[in-house]
Task: structure prediction
Amino acid sequence: MFDKVLIANRGEIALRIHRACRELGIHTVAVHSTADAEAMHVRLADESVCIGPPDARSSYLNIPAIIAAAQISGAEAIHPGYGFLAENAEFAAIVEEHKFAFIGPSPEHIRLMGDKIAARRRAAELGLPLIPGSEGPVADEAAALREARGIGFPVLLKAAAGGGGRGMKRVEREEDLPAALTAARAESRAAFGNDAIYLEKYLTGPRHIELQVLGDGHGKMVHLGERDCSLQRRHQKVIEEAPSPALNATERAALADLVMPALRALRYRGAGTVEFLYQDGRFFFIEMNTRLQVEHPVTEAVTGIDIVREQIRIAAGAPFVLKQQDIRFHGHAIECRINAEHPETFAPAPGRVSEYHPPGGPGVRIDSALYAGCRVPPYYDSLIGKLIVHGQSRNECLMRLRRALEEYVIGGIDTNIPLHLALSGTRAFVDGDYHVRWLEDYLAGRQP
Ligand code: MV4
Result:
């Protein structure tokens, strides 16, 4: 096992990784920008290194500074967390070239899944079902028209380099296609330096269902069940749950039967998430995330497996002892992402936290780097914590969620806790009857 791990991240996830390390007897090295000198992840780590000014490009994305921090501290491995450099194949390769272990998948798998067209092609070869659409990028307007007529309108234009919903354009009618294609290409070129666009049938009311997997890189592979992440706003997840209220046991088994042979064939290493859209009883592969995800705790709650510990064990080459038949699923878990933002306008709300009182009690987990008196800097994303509740049934979980949200006190800054309280009482959420567009529709119809 490693003796020392560098955590190339900040906030709640840096803390989460620190906790897994300490429970494995591993010492930790935090890195931080000058804006985060007083941050909780720095205070808790055994050592810390300042890697640059507040701007993430100069600090948390600064590869030479992070490699230098690993060298001077004598770390043996680097955990990238999520966001920042977590899905940067170049970074993973540089880490390995410098003889550190990268706590994540191989650079090749990161690169493959980062190219959405290549990922789609490989998924099809591996037998995963795709949304009907173009086989690869569309060459020009004529090709796009041909494809769209073949599958029928509405269609969705997607950027090959996109993902997470960036660079998508919905096209309702044939006459709108040329302009939409031009716009999609321009946006994609500006955002990603790549103007390759592909086209799919537009699904009107799908759910986002993803399967958590862990692999040893040699073909041993387990899944930890699915999460339903359909409650999103502007492609940011707001609430996630496990298991999905939409699936029965047969559908759940069918999902695992699709994914597991494919990932075994890929010899995937580490933690990963295979994302699907689910509509009318069918799963369609959309993308694979080659990182630890924000919502991993709901899976930890229902399986009892520490996903970050397993990531570290895999990277250290420890024997892979997880067996699918030993993995049991218990009850239901829901996560609310707590953001520093105005609960109605969603304007970011950085500032000083004057009071901090997180909920506790049975079935409640808080992952947060907040403390009374801390500052939420304006330079990074607005996620300041995660409330995860676990119960024997979905109903127990919902009751627990409400009481935990009522207990949660974060003073001095705006948070979306009032939004979560409102959502936890809506009919659609209580019934588990929602799809990926439901939250935006709900927010649009809310009284001002
Ligand atoms: C779609 C879709 C409907 N039809 N593809 C958005 C993120 C990206 N990973 C895939 N996304 C979607 N792809 C087809 N053919 C609707 C979405 C979508 C969505 C997906 C998952 C979670 C939230 C979403 C919100 C809006 C649209």
About this structure: The radius of gyration is 22 Å. The chain has a mean pLDDT of 96. The first helix runs from residue 11 to 23. The longest strand covers residues 221-233.
